[in-house]
Amino acid sequence: MWFFLFQLVLTCLIDKYKCTTTPDQVFSITPRLQADVELLKNVSSMHETVLWQPASPDQITINAEVHLFIPASSQKPIIKLLQRYDITHRVLLANAQELIEAQKRNYSTDPRSSTSYYERYHPLEDIYHWINKTSREYSERLQVILIGSSVEKQPLFVLKLSGKGHQPKKAIWMDCGIHAREWISPAFCMWFVQYSVMFYNQHSDITEILDKMDIYVLPVMNPDGYKYSWIENRMWRKNRSRNVDNACVGTDLNRNFDANWCTKGSSDNPCDETYCGRFPESEPEAAAVSNFIRSRKDLVKLYLSIHSYSQMLIFPYSCSYQEVPNHQELYEIAREAAMKIKIHYKNNYKFGAGAKSFYLAPGGSDDWAYNLGIDYSFTFELQDNGRYGFLLPPSHISKACSEALTAVKSIALSVIKKR
Ligand code: ARG
Ligand code: ZN
């Protein structure tokens, strides 16, 4: 009996994970052979894992890093399988639960905490509260517009930011939180709105932008999914629509737009993370955004969609390998924005046309907006580069948002100069 206890303590001292249950982890795995690719595709669909990168198993290719979330329960069989096939893995995050708790914890109001409201992540109810409060506080600059509601009847509120002058102005559209688990994205929309109202008439760049263009900001485009990612499953990506004849829930809102809808790079299987939905704009969230932008299509000159992670600036097309007519122009605008991030924040952003430089992903909002006639259309993939992925600690929010803000202002000023 004593000997047994002694042995247990000893094992604990040597390997502390043996005493506790193994935590959920994230692995980075780089397939070197086609056989490895096939195995990884199987692993990511068979077990209770969640693929972080790439977005869907069919985009797994030789020599490209795969980031895979592996819940404690699937770890042993998966490690065994990887060993059997001689595939090496690197533990990207040794304890996902700890990071998830840190992302939620910091939100409690500690009066001594030096971090501001904008350096924390916020649950959906708080964001609604914030929208209400901020729009009343800055009623001169902000107007709330209800553009529709989600599957679960959550309101979709857009904040309209404007400077001086009342005539109908050209406009910028920006949405955040299309994908539920990308928490840094809604945090950025909030950061952007707060910056704009605080520094209008103080910083010349944002003053010029707001005097020349209205900005429509949708802080959470997928409220049901966002809420679900706080309460039930931190790794949730899609919205929460039910499917007929299928128990799997959710459509990928960034595959639900009318741009080569449901072709290669998305899935017609409701159980997949990139499920395109029943038809283009079948989802109320995508329909609300499309209808709103369509109704102002002659005013909206710049479309911005904010995602994470991988530090990229993407422009059309993602739905085909075709080059758009103003490719060079978009390339230059993106290059300049990335350069400013490099100069001011010493961080690297890749940039390029979606499909050609990165991967095919049809049905995206950026391509749809471009085809509608909005010649300047960009998708941001914010921080980080895979160190924490979706579990970016709150302490990184400030830098991630500041650098993205610099890029957004750069792009907006470039577009203003064009006209
Ligand atoms: N990570 C984003 C997604 O998978 C990329 C979006 C790029 N644009 C696009 N139309 N797919 O949705
Ligand atoms: Zn995304």
From TrEMBL:
GO terms for molecular function: metallocarboxypeptidase activity; zinc ion binding. Residues 1-19 form the signal peptide. The keyword Protease applies. Keywords: Carboxypeptidase, Disulfide bond, Hydrolase, Metal-binding, Metalloprotease, Protease, Signal, Zinc. The keyword Hydrolase applies. GO terms for biological process: fibrinolysis; proteolysis. Its cofactor is Zn(2+). One of its GO terms (cellular component) is extracellular space. Gene3D superfamilies: Metallocarboxypeptidase-like, Zn peptidases. The active site is at residue 381. Residues 120-415 form the Peptidase M14 domain. This is Carboxypeptidase B2 (plasma).
